[in-house]
């Protein structure tokens, strides 16, 4: 997919008192080193007032700066995803991003054993039907049996900027879950011993509960995770209680991730004795629903190109709503 991005340069766009280079300006807009390397090594991809320039070109007020990115499918791992038509619940789409409400029981991308019936196959078919060449780049991957918002980058530029934002924890995700037992959001769990070598967790007053326990892969498994102070990487989960149901002895929670480890919410909830309802790997057998009651309900981030703040929410699916007493809770993200 080709993307042409144009900026009109205003007074002193980066450093007051002196002209900025094209490189400085684009870096200030979130362009990664990878994107700048692309512009340096491809002809006619960086223009000022319609004329090709180098990245060290000095910009003047009124200049029109254009960056052009064209995907090269033969160099991309996901270039040959088999298109497979399915109904997509599209929450938002523009030239740079696609936000989809993913149903449960659908893998996010093809893998061994799931080559054709994944969200990636559906998105590939969506663009094939429009005659648009497309490379599938999923920014926030969620588990097969987790439902909710998935962010997809539509081109090379938006992909690099969003992946960098994800690494910097600038894409904020809120999940809705239902766990077994009564859990209060006054709960704060930290590793045993002296935590002085750890950075303090982010202060989110609206998510007072916190679980700060390291997560590692279970030896011999490619999928399962466990708490491991010796081998694990730091993982921090914040949560807020939404509603306790005494009849079912379950608690509905809003969860906000400070880190993004594999199965983080599910592993942390198991570790504190409140496994996620329906979790076949870390939960109870013969549970209330047939998949983990975990839904990606909210995404907040800055648009990769315009830098405008974006906020997306999606409603709870029917199976998770069935776990909540009627009219007892009104999710607010």
Tag the structure with descriptive keywords.
333 residues, alpha+beta, Structural Genomics Hypothetical 15.5 Kd Protein In mrcA-pckA Intergenic Region, Chain A, Pseudouridine synthase, 3 domains, eleven-stranded mixed β-sheet, four-stranded antiparallel β-sheet, 6 helices, 27% strand
Structure, explained:
- The protein has 333 residues and is α+β, with helices and mostly antiparallel strands.
- It folds into three domains: 2-70, Roll (Structural Genomics Hypothetical 15.5 Kd Protein In mrcA-pckA Intergenic Region, Chain A); 75-161, Pseudouridine synthase; 172-196 and 203-321, Pseudouridine synthase (2-Layer Sandwich).
- Helices cover 15% and strands 27% of the residues.
- The protein has six helices and 17 strands.
- It has helices at 22-28, 33-41, 119-128, 156-167, 264-271, 318-321, and strands at 2-8, 46-48, 51-52, 64-70, 90-93, 97-102, 137-138, 147-153, 172-180, 188-189, 209-212, 215-217, 225-227, 236-245, 250-257, 294-302, 309-313.
- The strands form three sheets. Strands 5, 6, 7, 8, 9, 10, 11, 14, 15, 16 and 17 form an eleven-stranded mixed sheet that branches.
- Strand 7 (137-138) and strand 8 (147-153) form a beta hairpin.
- The model is unreliable at 74-78 and 194-198 (pLDDT under 50).
């Amino acid at each position: 997919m080709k993307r042409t991005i144009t900026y009109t340069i205003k007074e002193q766009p980066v450093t007051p008192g002196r002209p900025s280079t094209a490189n400085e300006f684009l870096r200030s807009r979130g362009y990664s080193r990878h994107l700048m390397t692309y512009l340096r090594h491809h002809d006619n991809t960086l223009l000022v007032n319609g004329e090709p320039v180098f990245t060290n070109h000095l910009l003047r007020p009124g200049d029109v700066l254009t960056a052009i990115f064209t995907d090269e499918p033969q160099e991309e791992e996901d270039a040959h995803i088999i298109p497979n038509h399915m109904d997509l619940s599209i929450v938002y789409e523009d030239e740079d991003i696609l936000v989809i409400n993913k149903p449960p029981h659908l893998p996010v991308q093809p893998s061994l054993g799931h080559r054709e019936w994944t969200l990636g196959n559906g998105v590939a078919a969506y663009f094939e039907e429009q005659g648009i060449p497309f490379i599938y780049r999923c920014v926030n991957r969620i588990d097969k049996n987790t439902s909710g918002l998935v962010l997809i980058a539509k081109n090379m530029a938006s992909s690099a900027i969003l992946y960098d934002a994800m690494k910097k924890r600038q894409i904020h995700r809120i999940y809705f879950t239902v766990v077994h037992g009564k859990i209060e959001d006054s709960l704060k769990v930290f590793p045993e011993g002296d935590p002085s070598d750890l950075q303090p967790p982010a202060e989110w007053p609206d998510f007072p509960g916190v679980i700060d326990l390291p997560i590692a892969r279970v030896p011999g498994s490619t999928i399962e995770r466990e708490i491991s102070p010796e081998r694990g990487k730091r993982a921090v989960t914040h949560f807020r209680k939404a509603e306790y149901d005494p009849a079912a002895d379950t608690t509905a929670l809003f969860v906000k991730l400070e880190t993004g480890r594999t199965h983080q919410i599910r592993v942390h909830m198991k570790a504190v004795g409140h496994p996620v309802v329906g979790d076949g790997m870390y939960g109870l057998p013969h549970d209330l629903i047939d998949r983990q009651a975990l839904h990606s309900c909210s995404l907040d981030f800055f648009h990769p190109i315009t830098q405008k703040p974006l906020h997306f929410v999606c409603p709870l699916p029917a199976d998770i709503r069935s776990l909540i007493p009627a009219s007892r809770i009104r999710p607010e993200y």
